[in-house]
Structure formats: structure tokens, C-alpha cells
Write a structure and sequence with these properties.
Blueprint lengths: L3 E4 L2 E2 L6 E7 L9 E6 L6 E6 L3 E3 L7 E6 L4 E6 L8 E7 L11 E2 L3 E4 L3
Parallel strand pairs: 2-11
Antiparallel strand pairs: 1-3, 3-8, 4-5, 4-9, 5-6, 7-8, 9-10, 9-11
Length: about 120
């Protein structure tokens, strides 16, 4: 069973930055692509960014967010800069696919809340 644990969420003012972490405890991350999704209240879960040998981004975060991996720490990061109120959501990392639909994924972390007040 693949286990993922997110951390790093919090409350940040507009224009601020946060770095989210997705750590794997039962498998080696560099064998898998890892994807970040987010879900705002009342909205569907949406693709944010993914990484295998390349990085991929949703248009809404391109130029502001950076996904990276540290294989020595078995962790994938999501550096979020220039945060906006519309970035407020629970952020999840997932493994098992490289698609942009959450239905393609079998393995999820528990999520971490990011709040950017308006």
C-alpha cells in the first residue's frame, strides 16, 4: 500500500509563499509520478501540478508554483509563490498515474489546508 503524507499548509497573506511537502513512507517516490491536486469548498478536486521526469502545471498556477522532488528525502515539494485568495483549498498529493483527472489515482495523502484570505 502506497502511503503519502502532506505537510506545510497554513494561513498566508496574499502575495505570500508556502512550501508543501509530500513524503512517501512505504515506497520509493522516484519510481512514480507524483501529482498535486486541490479542492476548494463546494468545488471539484482539480489538477495543480505533476512531476515524473518533467514538471507539468495547471494554467492557473504556471509561473507561480514550482514542483520538485528530492529523491534522497523521498519527498516531492510544491513551492507556491504569489499566493492569491483563489488558491485557498485543501491540497492533496497522489500517486499511481500522471493524468489530470483525480479519478485516475488510487493513492492519496490526507491533505493539507492552505488559506489565503481576501
Amino acid at each position: 500500500q502506497l502511503q503519502l503524507v502532506e505537510s506545510g499548509g497554513g494561513l498566508v497573506q496574499p502575495g505570500g509563499s508556502l512550501r508543501l511537502s509530500c513524503a512517501a513512507s512505504t515506497f520509493t517516490l522516484d519510481y512514480y509520478g507524483i501529482t498535486w491536486f486541490r479542492q476548494a469548498p463546494g468545488k471539484e478536486r482539480e489538477f495543480v501540478a505533476a512531476i515524473n521526469g518533467r514538471a507539468y502545471y495547471a494554467d492557473s498556477v504556471k509561473g507561480r508554483f514550482t514542483i520538485s522532488r528530492d529523491n534522497a528525502k523521498n519527498t516531492v515539494y510544491l513551492q507556491m509563490n504569489s499566493l492569491k485568495p483563489e488558491d485557498t483549498a485543501v491540497y492533496y498529493c497522489a500517486a499511481g498515474s500522471m493524468g489530470r483527472s483525480p479519478q485516475e489515482y488510487d493513492f492519496w495523502g490526507q491533505g493539507t489546508q492552505v488559506t489565503v484570505p481576501s
